[in-house]
Amino acid sequence: MSQLDLTSQALDIRPRPRLQYQALEPRALKSGFLTGLTWLAALLAAVPLFSVIYMLLIQGGTRLFGADIAEVLTGLPPAGFEMGGGIGPAIVGTLIMVGIASAISIPLGILAAIYLGVLDSTSKIAKTARFLAKVLTGFPSILAGVFVYAVIVIRFGYSATAGGVALAVLMLPTVVLAAEEAMSQVPQRMKDAAYGMGCTRTQVIWKVVLPTGLPGILTGVMLAIAGASGESAPLLFTALFSNYYISELAEPTASLSILIYNFSGMPFQNQIELAWTASLVLVLIVLVFNILARILGRPKV
Amino acid sequence: MEKLFQAANTSGSISGPPSAREYFNDRLFRSIALTSAFLIIVLVAYILWEIGREAMPAIGEYGLGFVTGTTWNVSKGEFGVLPEIWGTLYSSLLALLIGGVFGIAIAIFLTQDFINHRLATVFRTVIEMLAAIPSVVFGLWGIYVLIPLLKPGAEWLHDSLGWFPLFGTNLSGPGMAPAALVLAIMILPTVAAISVDAFRRIPYKVKEAAYGMGTTRWEAILKVMLPTASSGVLAALVLGFGRALGETMALAMLIGNANQISLSLFSPANTLASLLASNFPEAGRIEVQALMYAALVLLAITFLVNVAGLAVQQYTIRKFEGKK
Amino acid sequence: MKYKTSLASALAAAVAALGLLAGGQPAISATAEATELVVRGAGATFPQPLYQRWMQEYAKVDTGVRFSYEGVGSGSGVKRFLEGSVDFGASDAAMSDSELAKVDPKRGVEMIPMTAGMVVLAYNIPGVPEGLRLSRALYADILAGKVGFWDDARIQESNPDLTLPHLAIVTVVRRDSSGTTYVITNHLARIDPDWETSGPGIGKRVDWPGSAMEVQGNEGVARRVQITDGAIGYMAYEFAKQLDLPIATLQNKAGNFVEPGPLTGQAALASAEEIPENLRVYLPDPAGADAYPIVSYTWLLLDGRYPDPAKAEALKAALGWGLDEGQTIAAEMGYIPLPDRMIGKAKEALGRIR
């Protein structure tokens, strides 16, 4: 055995490092300081969320949970110097346009994701489509509105359909990418077993991949719906705004996000209160869909 | 021998080769799926082509002077978006500086064992909820909470350091500072999420090696982890910048809508996206063409930045997968 | 897995049910609409509060007609009227000669002045809750962007007893095509000889200096002034009065400092000399010792001949009411009641509509 004894006391000949943690050493101080800063940063980042929720509950809640909740939820938006009124048409408009957008983007997105994730994930079309879908996630929402304006509104006028299409353009990438992710996670064994039993690729998809990947697909769908409900830029000049309940799809339609935008620029206390109320309702809708995405998305494989 | 396998071959109930009809359905469905994937490519191409086509008359009319002009005068037909381009870039850059730093700090906080797993999940949820809040709600919050909050600080900065161009004017209300701050809050989740991804990709042994050599926690983070994850973090910053460029509503409500170029953090300004949002609804034929041109400029800028960010992200993934 | 799919389908059913419920709503209001006549109009935001009040009050008088009005600015109002997408338009600048030339000869047009109002300069200066006086050339220069700070010597000169802070002057102007903008720029061109040539010019939409904040509608200007320190913006008198915004006292042509109010407004209207046949009379710079300097009539634009006689009758009855009983409501709300001479001519024009 060696004659070195590393645990003995330090000699003057050969200095040995002190291996215990020393809090006041400059490097440790620096590390502790940065840790403190990071904690501060983390707490600061959480502050806006809680501030927003607080304002929503206080400002929006007083009107929403006050005496006249029915009036607020079903009444027509008030004009200028009017009192009272509600956000009914806006809620209905948002639901209808998000519904149209979902009807367009969900089937299309899932079909595309089937191709990208299962059928042929390495072909040129798949690679290009995947890349472009990712590019589309960062697409400014107002340009979706400009695009739909040029294609639909110029020919057919302002309508809820145009608004729905603009929202669909924004929902599509989220649905495609989440669904593709979910479906490519399905274990190869399960698919092989199905092939072994003589299934065609379509049957494998419908009977094995889709059911197994459903949680992930639903997560993507819920997140896309949540995002689309909150959008306002694409609706500004496709669906415009209306002060009445929608009676047909081909006319300007109210929406919660546009109502908030319009009313927040008004000097009247009544309108501002309703803007907060609408914000509370909108955030509740968005949060519900986000939570649903989380619950439904728990993987089972 | 034949008899043994006969039962399995004849029925078609449990397993057997597909029938002709099933083959047909298979072909049909696969072509539908292919078409759908192809439609995504077609959609992006159509968007680019359509906005370009609508902008053509204005490009012919105003040419490059559009990008250097500073007035937006509908009655005289003079259009220029230089103040808007300035506002877009300046606000996004400020947002990136603040939101980027915070986003990376949060990513480090979440992935470098500062808190236990449960707390990390809770915190992650908080950040994701922040991302879920719609832009208009942030705008409303900005008017009511952020601007009054900033006014005292801005006043002090302007009074004491007013000679410095960044604090050259006073914060009257809506302006560059509240807009950039709200923008920072909005891109923070994006930067954090992609950075978390980048940090997670680092092989564990790299961290182990650093600690084994006796680094403090922060020496390991700053000198080993961050450089290793640097391309991923860069992708996060570029994509966050791209998101900031395209943000519309909160800025339209908070930036002040003044067509001027100023270095001051507190002066009102305007961005391309808020110009589109504000002027489009009631625009006449001539103005719509000019706005389409502005939309094309915005499209070009965001497209370039997003493609660059994605390219960096692809490079990162390939780098780590290759190492493994 | 089963409970998740059933949860998802329950959700889908709920959304569908909500959609059907909402679909039921318009069916109810549609049947109510089927029995009453709907008359739509759009235009200036300047008189919008008044028109809304009138529609509310008139609905009690005549229950068979429902009026709807959208405040989109005078420019859009004229545009929609020319297109025929509304039954009546509203504009603070009536219609210019070029716009009149675009009228469809089969329809014709009658411009009926319904009320008049003042355009005021409301401000928000911390520490100055009221009492700002602006001399004639001064307020023109402020709006032209030539005065940078509130403690400028010229402003201090007119206001010796106020302590004005060193705050930047932020002008708040209209981005949309606005009759209110036309009224004030028309007036400012009379004060400032350079306004039309080298300044922003006259029009419903002008080239304000880059430092001005551009917003939508009278209410947008009021809102922006409310939340911005050091702001000054032009808006209809009623907005500033009902929202309790401080209003600047302006110096008129006669050299007196005049506050906007019912008496000063009427004094300004009285200075109009002759009224042309189409009832388009502008008052860019009223003389008169007590006249408030910035006033304007505001017009409703009606077709000369309506294809639907029921609509024509409904409009004539409603506007007739507005010219009689409506004038007291107008005075209550801060608008200037029409001089009798003008009411007479307006009723004549109304009678010409078929």
UniProtKB/TrEMBL annotation, chain A:
<feature type="transmembrane region" description="Helical">
    <location>
        <begin position="90"/>
        <end position="119"/>
    </location>
</feature>
<feature type="transmembrane region" description="Helical">
    <location>
        <begin position="131"/>
        <end position="154"/>
    </location>
</feature>
<protein>
    <recommendedName>
        <fullName>Phosphate transport system permease protein PstA</fullName>
    </recommendedName>
</protein>
<dbReference type="Pfam" id="PF00528">
    <property type="entry name" value="BPD_transp_1"/>
</dbReference>
<feature type="transmembrane region" description="Helical">
    <location>
        <begin position="204"/>
        <end position="228"/>
    </location>
</feature>
<feature type="domain" description="ABC transmembrane type-1">
    <location>
        <begin position="91"/>
        <end position="293"/>
    </location>
</feature>
<comment type="similarity">
    <text>Belongs to the binding-protein-dependent transport system permease family. CysTW subfamily.</text>
</comment>
<dbReference type="GO" id="GO:0005315">
    <property type="term" value="F:phosphate transmembrane transporter activity"/>
</dbReference>
<dbReference type="InterPro" id="IPR000515">
    <property type="entry name" value="MetI-like"/>
</dbReference>
<dbReference type="InterPro" id="IPR005672">
    <property type="entry name" value="Phosphate_PstA"/>
</dbReference>
<keyword id="KW-0813">Transport</keyword>
<dbReference type="GO" id="GO:0005886">
    <property type="term" value="C:plasma membrane"/>
</dbReference>
<keyword id="KW-0472">Membrane</keyword>
<keyword id="KW-0812">Transmembrane</keyword>
<keyword id="KW-1133">Transmembrane helix</keyword>
From TrEMBL, chain B:
<keyword id="KW-1003">Cell membrane</keyword>
<comment type="similarity">
    <text>Belongs to the binding-protein-dependent transport system permease family. CysTW subfamily.</text>
</comment>
<feature type="transmembrane region" description="Helical">
    <location>
        <begin position="122"/>
        <end position="147"/>
    </location>
</feature>
<dbReference type="InterPro" id="IPR035906">
    <property type="entry name" value="MetI-like_sf"/>
</dbReference>
<feature type="transmembrane region" description="Helical">
    <location>
        <begin position="290"/>
        <end position="312"/>
    </location>
</feature>
<dbReference type="GO" id="GO:0005315">
    <property type="term" value="F:phosphate transmembrane transporter activity"/>
</dbReference>
<keyword id="KW-0997">Cell inner membrane</keyword>
<keyword id="KW-0592">Phosphate transport</keyword>
<feature type="transmembrane region" description="Helical">
    <location>
        <begin position="89"/>
        <end position="110"/>
    </location>
</feature>
<dbReference type="GO" id="GO:0006817">
    <property type="term" value="P:phosphate ion transport"/>
</dbReference>
<keyword id="KW-0472">Membrane</keyword>
<dbReference type="InterPro" id="IPR011864">
    <property type="entry name" value="Phosphate_PstC"/>
</dbReference>
<keyword id="KW-0813">Transport</keyword>
<keyword id="KW-1133">Transmembrane helix</keyword>
<dbReference type="Pfam" id="PF00528">
    <property type="entry name" value="BPD_transp_1"/>
</dbReference>
From TrEMBL, chain C:
<comment type="subunit">
    <text>The complex is composed of two ATP-binding proteins (PstB), two transmembrane proteins (PstC and PstA) and a solute-binding protein (PstS).</text>
</comment>
<dbReference type="InterPro" id="IPR050962">
    <property type="entry name" value="Phosphate-bind_PstS"/>
</dbReference>
<dbReference type="InterPro" id="IPR024370">
    <property type="entry name" value="PBP_domain"/>
</dbReference>
<dbReference type="GO" id="GO:0042301">
    <property type="term" value="F:phosphate ion binding"/>
</dbReference>
<feature type="signal peptide">
    <location>
        <begin position="1"/>
        <end position="22"/>
    </location>
</feature>
<dbReference type="Pfam" id="PF12849">
    <property type="entry name" value="PBP_like_2"/>
</dbReference>
<feature type="domain" description="PBP">
    <location>
        <begin position="32"/>
        <end position="316"/>
    </location>
</feature>
<dbReference type="GO" id="GO:0043190">
    <property type="term" value="C:ATP-binding cassette (ABC) transporter complex"/>
</dbReference>
<keyword id="KW-0813">Transport</keyword>
<dbReference type="InterPro" id="IPR005673">
    <property type="entry name" value="ABC_phos-bd_PstS"/>
</dbReference>
<comment type="function">
    <text>Part of the ABC transporter complex PstSACB involved in phosphate import.</text>
</comment>
<comment type="similarity">
    <text>Belongs to the PstS family.</text>
</comment>
<dbReference type="GO" id="GO:0035435">
    <property type="term" value="P:phosphate ion transmembrane transport"/>
</dbReference>
<keyword id="KW-0592">Phosphate transport</keyword>
<protein>
    <recommendedName>
        <fullName>Phosphate-binding protein PstS</fullName>
    </recommendedName>
</protein>
